[in-house]
Automatic annotation (TrEMBL):
UniProt organism field: Actinomadura litoris
Keyword Transmembrane part of the UniProt annotation: yes
TM region positions: 6-30
Keyword Transmembrane helix recorded: yes
Protein name per its UniProtKB record: Uncharacterized protein
UniProt lineage: Bacteria, Bacillati, Actinomycetota, Actinomycetes, Streptosporangiales
Protein keywords: Membrane, Transmembrane, Transmembrane helix
Region Disordered, residue ranges: 46-76
Amino acid sequence: MTEVTWVAVPVALGSAGLVVLAYAAFRVYLGVRRFGRELERTRQRLGPKQSALRGELSDLQAARIPQPPGDGVRSS
């Protein structure tokens, strides 16, 4: 009877450990889902501003006056 008890103790501890790991994994899963929703909300909010900034950047690059190649900037 004693041998059966020693077998049952590690099995019970292993099962308890798996339950703890499953709980932690579920919490991580919920956190990742929440983080994904937050990222999507942020993308939706920043999307129009990002495209406006890209438009302004392309306008600035198009209006830039080309400089003739020279020696560059020299420090004194």
